[in-house]
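Tutorial handout. Part one gives the primary structure; part two gives the three-dimensional structure as tokens.
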Amino acid sequence: MGEVLRPERCVVAVDGPSGSGKSTVSRRLATALDGVYLDTGAMYRSVTWAVLQAGVDLADPDAVTKIALETDLTVGTDPVAPHFRANAVDVDAAIRGPEVTGAVSAVAAVPAVRRHLVALQREIIGAHSRIVVEGRDISSVVAPDADLKVYLTASAAARAQRRSLEDATDVAATQADLERRDKIDSSRTADPLRRTDDAIEVDTTGMGIDEVVAHLLDLLNSKVTR
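Part two.
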């Protein structure tokens, strides 16, 4: 990796399934660029937390949408310490728990919820000069004009191993849950998880975090110097 170039404005879109390394890689990349970081998945998780707190039926899209629109989200974009608040409540720990994890795909599949959060995400992107945005529909929907589009992936076994270490859960159960979420995210009608034609796929199975970040910096440098 050569010198890290920091263009005046730069949007990097990082998509991929759970366990592919998106969050850690995106935060490290944002730090290297002296930019900010947006975890769009955490926005959906924060809304899901609010929906669960309200006790509405996850199968009722109108009720879920109503809560989503009413939820006051505070989104912290510091890559070193990103944070989220929903209705003035710190939800950083709660949104990573099993209850939210089990419900987030259902909430994220509601088209009106996606439209609402995509609009908020675009506002955040427009407010910063250099930003790394991670999620499942960044290249295709949220930031189709991003300077660099990357789709991170990894083998099912590697993804399950990583996520089970993070969450201190059983590997087999974790892999089954990842497969369940992949199916929901990839088959939903609104903004499904997919790699766009112009996104560069990076298989992180045999790569360390530093190696992946260095590779993405090289890709970005090659684009901004052309």
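Part three, for discussion. The first strand starts at residue 10 and ends at 15. The CA atoms of residues 35 and 130 lie 5 Å apart.
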